């Protein structure tokens, strides 16, 4: 009996992937990014800076809002003794109001980050650079 030949391996490539790799990018900014040139690095650094700036601004808002409450209660002890529904106001603010504040801050950050990324994508895909 003759030994069976092993099946030859076949490389399967999706048409879109093959076309994308073989075609030269026509956008100058995309070329700069793909070649990792200094201009491409500057574009990416700009995106990272924009994301960092949004994060720092929102972190500052949270730090001032939540970190300022103890200072507020230290300077206004009558406010710290105020009770609402039998619970002290500081406990309500730090235990209940803090969570919606953090949720809204997170949602705003996601919005700003997506907007920054969309602006970056629009910049890269512009044909008139």
Structural description of this entry:
- The protein is mainly α and 129 residues long.
- The chain has a domain at 50-125.
- The chain is built from 5 helices and 2 strands; from the N terminus they run H-H-H-H-E-E-H.
- The chain has helices spanning 15-22, 28-34, 38-75, 77-81, 89-125; strands at 83-84, 87-88.
- A two-stranded antiparallel sheet has the order 1-2.
- A hairpin with a 2-residue loop joins strand 1 and strand 2 (87-88).
Low-confidence stretches: none
What's the overall average pLDDT, rounded? 79
Summarize the main sheet.
Answer: 2 strands, antiparallel
Outline: elongated
| Helix proportion range | over 70%
Q: Tell me the total number of β-strands.
A: 2
% residues in beta strands: under 5%
The largest sheet has its strands arranged as: 1-2
Question: How widely separated are the two ends?
Answer: 67 Å
Order of helical and strand elements: HHHHEEH
Radius of gyration: 28 Å
Lay out the secondary structure:
Blueprint: H1 15-22, H2 28-34, H3 38-75, H4 77-81, E1 83-84, E2 87-88, H5 89-125
Antiparallel strand pairs: 1-2
Any key phrases for this structure?
5 helices, 129 residues
Offer a concise description of the structure:
This protein has 129 residues and is mainly alpha-helical. It has helices spanning 15-22, 28-34, 38-75, 77-81, 89-125, and strands at 83-84, 87-88. It has a domain at 50-125.
